[in-house]
Design a protein that fits this description.
Blueprint: H1 5-19, H2 27-34, H3 38-50, E1 54-57, E2 63-66, H4 75-83, H5 105-121, H6 125-139
Antiparallel strand pairs: 1-2
Amino acid sequence: MHLTRFTDYSLRTLIYVGLQGDRLASIAEIARAYAISEHHLNKVVHHLGQIGLLETVRGRNGGIRLARPAETIRIGEVVREVEGHMAVIECRGSEPCAIAGVCVLERALWEALAAFLAVLDKYTLADLLEARGAALAARLHLEEFTAAGAPPKPKEPSAVDA
């Protein structure tokens, strides 16, 4: 099974935004964190907003955040929504295979796809964030790890506080 770059970027965007908690993230900062094109990321964010996974806030202090709690976002759901048509093999397309209808390969591949998605359905975005959230935040150079449900790291006392 090969996921498209669009799906990859969608999942990465959800992870980044999920690590932010209620803080709004910008497309520019996500693009910098992952070293990916802002132009492509704009399309990703737009689509994630259309399918109800991201909320966009317009204006000078705008940005994006999760539209639903991370615990309710199943990874299998995201992959299905973003990938769209997930045919593993085209047996009956515009140029049908000579053995279509009698070959068992098509059924076996559909079963494999169903099993793949069933495993992804076991995981939520919250699972991905909780398992390695601090490490993810560090790798993405986030100053504060504020994933939904995770408290921000306490600030180091400064000389002024002492």
